[in-house]
Amino acid sequence: MPYTQGMSAVPRYAVFGHPIAHSLSPRLHALFAAQTGRALAYVTLDATPAAFTSAMREFFAGGASGANVTLPHKSAACALADVHTPTAHRLGVANVLTLLPDGRLEADSNDGAGMLADLSGRCGVDPRNREVLLLGAGGAARAAAFALLDAGVARLTIANRTEARARRLEEVLAAPRRVRVLAWDQLAAAGAFALVINATSAGVQRAELALPASLISAQTFAYDLSYGPAAQPFVAWAHAAGCGAASDGLGMLVATAAASFLRWHGVQPDLAAALRALQG
Ligand code: NDP
pLDDT-derived band of residue 6, with 50, 70 and 90 as boundaries? Predict the structure, then answer.
């Protein structure tokens, strides 16, 4: 369905999720807008899975210019778009929707690139030739899995609370020699990994993630895609288990927000300054 660009004084954007109150995206886009001298409105919109598609259509029918999408809507966001970037097409999930000049909605996914940029930049971690454990099989895990395989990890082990979902992801990745799925209760016998990535939403849901300390060695880097209080239990668990280092996904959020900003406004914001402002 084609949409018409809004006539309001400032272009409108939002991040859709459920829950969404924890999101730092409005703050980040306000920081980028101030850095680059742009006027825009960017808000959070909470939509349940049942309401998501109609809420998004209503948002664009009301004249909005773009939207970010977070848990648990990344598949639905990809499905409702009219056109897909090669990455969104390949992944089947999207975190950025953009109104094109011809009124069609474009879906893109920049989560994988944002995670790799944060790992190699702020965290100083090169995933090439590493044994990697990915916890989760939702929208963000899917983007992370493709990115990690593209980056040249030696082997990607996926474990998800619902094993069937991990099996579906394994099938889509189509790299049987480098991907395996373990049931959650097999993790205790799996040994330690060089990189353990938490792509579950347990932290955001305030649910406990029961993990064996044997996944961690002094060489392990532990990374949680979520940020702030949601990442604290996993990061604290990794430190208690004796990891070499651990990080939350704040740098990934800044990188993906900056990529969205560049897509919508054609200007590259200052990531380091935004990260400092969020941490300050
Ligand atoms: P989805 O809802 O698509 O997937 C959630 C995943 O978490 C599923 O694999 C689900 O397992 C698992 N899960 C949920 N609760 C539990 C639990 N109690 N114990 C174990 N596993 C659980 O969410 P997304 O993939 O979109 O997002 C995942 C996380 O990544 C969120 O916290 C999100 O904030 C974060 N994120 C951060 C980004 C950043 O820029 N820093 C970008 C993208 C995501 P099951 O299949 O069994 O339901």
Answer: low
